[in-house]
Amino acid sequence: MSTHGKNVLIIGEKSSQVRTFCETLLPAIKTKKVGKRIYTRSGPWKGNNLTFLPLSGHITTVDTKKGYGWGETAPINIVQDPKALIIKENYEFRKIIRELATKSEELWLATDPDSEGDNIAYEAYKIAIRANPILRVNTRRVWNSSLTSVEILRAFNQLANWSVNQALAVQGRRMVDAWVGFAGTREVTIAARKVRNERGLVLSVGRVQLPTLKLIVDKDIERTEFLVQEKYNILADLLDESRKQILVSVQHDKSPFTNENDVQTILDKLKKSTLGKISSFQQKQTKIPPPRPMNTTDAIALLSRQLKLKADNALEILATLYEQGYISYPRTENRQFKSNFPHNEILTNLQSHPPYKPFFQQIKTMTQVRTNGRKQGTEDHDPIHPTGEIPSIGGKITPLHLKSWTFIARWYIGMFMEDLIQQRGTVRLAIKEEPFSQKYQSTESLGWTEAMNWRRPRETPSFSFEAGQIVQVRNIRSEAFKTKPPARWSDATLIKRLEKLKIGTKSSRPDVIKKLELRQYIVRKGNSYESTNTGKTIITVFNAIWPDLVTPKFTRQVEIRMDEVASETCSYDMMLETIRSEYLFLHQKLLSQIENLQDQLKEAFSDLGSSTYKKRKSHFSTKQRKSKTENASYPCPACNSGNLRERTNSRTGEKFFGCSRYPACSFTSSRNIYKKKG
Predict the structure, then answer these.
(1) CATH number of the domain located at residue range(s) 296-414 in this protein
(2) pTM to 2 decimals?
(3) Alpha-carbon distance 110 to 104, whole Å?
(4) What is the DSSP letter of 484?
(5) Bridge-partner residues for 139, per DSSP?
């Protein structure tokens, strides 16, 4: 497709991204402000007239059409009627996109290069092609892996074809979440309000939220039910020939023991023993290759574990490093680099950084990582990697950003380095026919762990014996210890578990954890999460009433079907109808259990007590108050994390209700949907 001398409309996802594009591409930039918060940047490039329009994330919301609002119809009708849900477009952005589209001959979609970015691009694309149908065949995709000048130029010179499949997969998730959010939340809230007559009470139900909360609650229950046991190890020291120095302490093969009498029987048997006979000594060299490339889950887990960050904070830091041009796009499921990836260019730049020079002595080739993982997901993204640009503190780069970048850079360099080489040995012996053994591991070469120093192995003293050798033994003893309950979920372990169970997406998982914390269903203590009484109560109630939604079963099916749409093995309409039927069945099961639900809620509210309940109510209806006009705020039905607030249209003076997270969430309504008409 020729682009010579044409007017091109380029849609970006956010202002900072578009600013970077323009600084790289346009020798002269003309900025035009439209309204209070929308502006365009334009200028010439390769004979074309480029006009950039930055969005502010999603410019549409999923809502119910007239007659399907709160209290206007039975919640199940929202699911039964395929046309009950509508897509509402932001008025300001719709107006400017229409205006610019009519003047454009081509449309380039330059939102974030992932499925979520595709969906945001799709929202603008649909508005643009309605205004100018010729753009339907003249639309291309800008797919950049980083925001460096080199990568931006490559992406704009090698425009990709535009496909809506990734966008439709995300759109499908939004529709399904709306069914669960609108119909499910309203159904259980109506039931709850009949039990406890409180207008501000809302019990939020979420497709990803409930299974995530269940993991945390189940872990707490497991810890509560854990029975601490006293167990015993039997140990003995092996001496050198002079009988003065301990070579190694060995442990009885049946350790740990649970019966103290068994321990005492063995100790009595070995009471006067001073000799043991080596039955075998095995020694081998083990080579451990570098870890696989890093995806979003790996990066969040690494930063959360090493820097004690919350998952959403880790993702924010990654996003800033990307926007500043220091790492590649951080939202990727992939763990495999393409065969033609320009590793050499990146490594050459990193090699000039003095702290990293010693690592390159171990690198034999700078064109291919030692261990390439498997391609995951349908996105054509490489794993997370440094761009080769070296950050320094200043501007948006804080010491925490620099530390985070260092972990990513060291991981990347380590993937090219030599194996970690360890010597491992095991000795086995008998003391009066009682079997003992011990292992050791020592490092011969640190290999890639010189760069990834947080992964260096634990060292133990090495030893050497020969089969049949008689050794001196002393201090045969028992050591008691108490068992410990399983550890609670940390951000790192929870994110990895959610990925394994296919609960949520790489981008949504940190946000779901944050929402659970904001709703006071969980609290973060130290570096791990604990469920509150309210969180435990919600899972107890829904485990009994709606197990299909609480377990990962339903949400996992949704993710599988969305992947099928993204990979073009299933049509969007067929997928949506299938999931609609599946959720309708689940909702009907909920209806059959409404009386049981109310009985459970009566007990739950009683257990929570009035003071706890008032605290929860305060969270739903009065947190974040700013004025008297906001005294009756309620959870936003679109995003479930903001509150509805009364606002005034600056142009018309009319009152309306909007989400407190605007512009991140652009849901609006002419009335408070939580109040019945009249």
Answers:
(1) 1.10.290.10
(2) 0.83
(3) 16
(4) -
(5) 107
Domain boundaries, the chain: 7-163, 169-225+488-616, 230-289+420-482, 296-414, 622-678
Neighbours of 628 (CB within 10 A): 7
pLDDT > 80? residue 543:
yes
Rounded-to-integer distance, Cα 396 and Cα 97, Å: 31
Count Cβ atoms below 10 Å from residue 153 Cβ, excluding itself: 13
The CATH H-level (homologous superfamily) assignment of domain 230-289+420-482 is Topoisomerase I, domain 3 (2.70.20.10)
**Span 169-225+488-616 CATH architecture:** Orthogonal Bundle (1.10)
| Residue 53 β-bridge partners | 11
Question: Region 556-570: what's the mean pLDDT?
Answer: 88
User: Among all chains, which residue has been given the structure tokens 């130290």?
Assistant: 526
Beta-sheet pairing, 528-531 with 522-525: antiparallel
125 band by pLDDT with thresholds 50, 70 and 90: very high
Contact 485, 452 (CB under 8 A): no
Coil vs helix vs strand at 167: helix
Q: CATH assignment of 7-163, given 3.10.450.540, 3.40.50.300, 1.20.1440.230, 3.40.50.140? A: 3.40.50.140
- Residue 355, preceding bond cis, omega within 30 degrees? no
Phi, psi angles (nearest 5°) of residue 316: -65, -40
